[in-house]
Each structure stands twice: as C-alpha cells, then as structure tokens.
Amino acid sequence: LVTGGRDSTARIWDMRTKACVHTLGGHGHTVESIICQADEPQVITGAHDKTVKLWDIRKGECVETLTHHKKGIRAMVAHPTENAFATAASDKIRFWKTPEGKHLRSIGDQAETVLN
C-alpha cells in the first residue's frame, strides 16, 4: 500500500505487519497523486510542488524528478496497455514513458481547454 499526504511524503506500507517500509521524501508540497505499477518495482508520485517523482521501491530512492509542469500536479493515470502515464495540472496534460520518465508529448495551453 502506498499513501501520500500533506507532509510532502509518500509512504510504502506492508499490509501484513502494518509497518511503514519506506518513507519517500523530497517533494516540496502535498503529494496529490500516486501510481503503482504491477510489472515494475516503481512508484510514481505527483505533488503540488509541480514535480513528478519516479521511485525505486526496492531501495526507497527517487530515480528521476520530472519538472516540466508549471502548476501543481492534480491527477495522474497509467496507460492500461502501454508503458506510459499521463499527468494533469492546470497548465497542461503531459504524457510520459515508463520506467525512465521520458516526456512524450503535451496537450493544451491549459488542461481545461482539452476537457471542453
């Protein structure tokens, strides 16, 4: 189980023992969204500090910080069949390749224009 909060961290929990296995620190603001990948030992966190972090959960370390957004990350979603994910902020929606976090493309000057 992975949780995120207003303390700028995400925590990885062992559900059997209810113990915190790793505390993933490094964001500068609330961790708003989390993606857990079934086929990679990777967790992706998005925060109000405008960054997306890719974490190696075996080591509990950040392996990449993505800084392309100009506004805080509000939502993220993993692609159901491809090794990719999308991040949404009020500036743009951006698409990324996993596990390395390569930026693929972005949509809109503002995310709201895409939704209309």
Write down how many β-strands occur, each being a DSSP E stretch of 2 or more residues: 11
* Secondary-structure element series: EEEEEEEEEEEH
Query: What proportion of the residues form beta strands (DSSP E)?
Result: over 45%
Distance between the termini: 35 Å
Number of helices: 1
Shape: globular
Instruction: Return residue spans where pLDDT drops below 50 for at least 5 consecutive residues.
Output: 111-116
Mean pLDDT: 90
This entry's quaternary arrangement is: single chain
Helix content: under 10%
Strand order of the largest sheet: 4-5-6-7
Give the biggest sheet: 4 strands, antiparallel
Radius of gyration: 14 Å
Folded structure, characterized:
The protein is mostly beta strands. The chain has 1 helix and 11 strands, in the order E-E-E-E-E-E-E-E-E-E-E-H. The chain has one helix at residues 111-115, and strands at 2-4, 9-14, 19-25, 31-36, 42-47, 52-56, 61-66, 73-78, 84-89, 93-97, 102-107. The strands form 3 sheets. It has a 4-stranded antiparallel β-sheet, with no helix packed on it. Strand 9 (84-89) and strand 10 (93-97) form a beta hairpin. The chain is globular and about 45 Å long. Residues 111-116 have low confidence and may be disordered.
